[in-house]
Amino acid sequence: MEKIKGGVTAAKGFEASSTAAGIKYKDRTDMALIYSQVPCEAAGTFTTNVVKAAPVKWDRQVVDSGKKAQAVIVNSGIANACTGAEGFGYCKDTAEAAAKYLSVDAEGVLIGSTGVIGKQMPIDKLTAGIEILAGKKNDSIENGTEAAKAIMTTDTHEKELAVTIQVGGKTVTIGGMAKGSGMIHPNMCTMLAFVTTDAVITKEALQKALSEDVVDTYNMISVDGDTSTNDTALVLANGMAENPMIEYGTEDYQTFKAALHEINEYLAKQIAGDGEGATALFEVKVKGAESVKAAKVLAKSIACSNLTKTAIAGHDANWGRIVCAMGYSGAQFDPEKVDLFFESKAGKIQIAEDGVALDFSEEKATEILSQPEVTAIADVKIGDAEATAWGCDLTHGYIEINADYRS
């Protein structure tokens, strides 16, 4: 596997574009297009929130139908959630506009929306934006990057990655982009992720690869404990690499899945570290658990603990908050066996052994916790299972952003 420059336009046959449609923002791009020169197999996973946005319902319909997809239209600023039949109708209008300007099948147009819940989409601005997107699309790396920027809301930077693998002597490329900063919680956390690949792969294998991987990537991140109405992860495969068909359960499938994991984990960590108001990516590793399920429960509980997150923001090695979060997680462990560590580029320090504080250097701990990426390690010493979750610190900035989000 090799990392290369680019995102959704890195794979053969994929194009992208962006434009400022004025849907909510007045000073930036707010619409993006992902387009494949040929129809694609499509896979998707979606929010577990009972309240599902219109684009989520639309995309599930497309993915479940088995129809080939050829375009994705994404807007930021308005989520098209809690908008009733009118909002769902706008998804149909969006798909038909894309079909008109891109000469594709409307039933194969996927849609992503993110932003304020409860507002109706200004459909005239959206359809006008699609015409512009169609005219600007190309396969350049720059267009892919600009598309990644256009889907941001409170994100501070674009999130994209691309890798290549070898399958049957052919180079297969996988690229992706994502957005997410607030309303992020481990349940297909508002996050949107779009992955493109030129792999020849069955729809079954593509869907299983995505579904199996989200449980260890997007579902292991949290910023604020709020599961969005719009969470969507889509993968499109157009087959233009001309590799031997990848089928579920084969060695080639494992190779593909590992590459997809590389993309998804990177994007998930970028989302977590770019949490609203955050100054640090907070990684939590749980080791020595009796099962993977227990390890995940413990890791998520620590990553989601507001008290722990504020301690990270204050560069304070207040390890009691970690043990407390483990204790109410619901997972069983012996508190008198727990070892705790903090680690970053500044070093690694053990702060507790067998559930009791060690005489550690507070100054060194503060130095370690002052880095932009901080890891807490909890070894419960019961078994050999482990899991990793990602979050961020909790600062005053989160309140400032969300107190006036609609304005």
Strands, helices and their partners?
Layout: E1 2-4, E2 14-19, E3 31-46, H1 54-65, E4 69-78, H2 84-102, E5 109-116, H3 123-136, H4 141-150, E6 159-167, E7 170-179, E8 192-197, H5 203-214, E9 232-237, H6 251-273, E10 281-289, H7 292-304, H8 306-313, H9 320-327, E11 339-344, E12 347-353, E13 356-357, H10 362-369, E14 373-379, E15 385-392, H11 396-403
Parallel strand pairs: 4-5, 8-9, 10-14
Antiparallel strand pairs: 1-6, 2-3, 3-4, 3-9, 6-7, 7-8, 10-15, 11-12, 11-14, 12-13
Helix pairs in contact: 1-2, 2-3, 5-6, 7-9
Describe the protein's architecture and organization.
Its main location: cytoplasm. The structure is a single chain. Helix 1 (54-65) packs across helix 2, helix 5 (203-214) crosses helix 6 and helix 7 packs across helix 9 (320-327). Strand 11 (339-344) and strand 12 (347-353) form a beta hairpin. The chain is an alpha+beta fold and 407 residues long. The longest helix is centred in the middle third of the chain and has 23 residues, at 251-273. 33% of the residues lie in helices and 28% in strands. Strands 1, 2, 3, 4, 5, 6, 7, 8 and 9 form a nine-stranded mixed beta sheet that branches. A six-stranded mixed beta sheet has the order 13-12-11-14-10-15.
Question: Gist?
Answer:
The protein contains eleven helices and 15 strands. It is 33% helix and 28% strand.
